[in-house]
Amino acid sequence: MQKATAADDDSYVFLENLRQYLTKFDPTKPHYLGFRFRPYLKNGYNSGGVYVLSKAAVKLFIENSYLNETLCPYLEFEDVAMAKCLESIDIHPIDTRDEKGRQRFTPYDVDQMFAGALSEELSRIWFMDKPNEVSYFGSLKSKIS
Q1: How many CB atoms lie within 10 A of CB 139?
Q2: What is the DSSP string of 91-128?
């Protein structure tokens, strides 16, 4: 899949795993992949830590919404803003978990995601698809001590 990837400077991506996963997608169709958060938009939005857009999604975004302030208004949070722009042209985040329900993208560090540092209430509010195991790739942020 020809794609564009956005990643924070403190994100880690296992490129071989990402490349292999992306072979499942047709680059001529719009895809918006990442870790889905629940608030702000009906279909959620992908964490700004790492998300991937197919070539078709980038093309539609640039041609139809990027310079249109009505469809793509300025918002403080880049990840929410991108999702709003994409939503305006009917491109939505999809479930990127594997066949066992494991997340492929993770927006928080290990303690927050898997050791219970995030409360059940916060998880319900924020996560579209609650993580249950370590991911294959994404923005798994390690603690440096």
Answers
A1: 23
A2: --------TTS--S---SBHHHHHSS-S-HHHHHHHBS
Q: If you search the block for the tokens 């898997």, which residue do you land on? A: 114
How many degrees, rounded to 5, is the angle at CA 45 between CA 114 and CA 75? 120
**Sheet order of strands, 45-54 included:** 3-7, 45-54, 32-37
List the one residue out of 128, 131, 96 whose CA is nearest residue 112: 131
Q: Nearest CA to 86 among 35, 52, 39, 123?
A: 52
Q: Locate tokens 């698809």: which residue?
A: 129
Q: How far apart are CA 72 and CA 77, in angstroms?
A: 13
Per-residue pLDDT tens digits of the chain, which is 145 residues long: 566 777 777 777 888 888 999 999 998 999 999 999 988 888 999 998 889 999 999 999 999 998 898 888 877 789 999 999 999 999 999 999 888 887 888 887 666 666 655 667 777 777 777 655 544 444 444 433 3
Nearest to 39 by CA among 127, 112, 106: 127
The long-range contacts involving 112-118, CB below 8 angstroms and separated by at least 24 positions, are: 113/140
Query: In whole angstroms, what is the distance from residue 17 CA to residue 137 CA?
Result: 7
**Single pTM value for the model:** 0.79
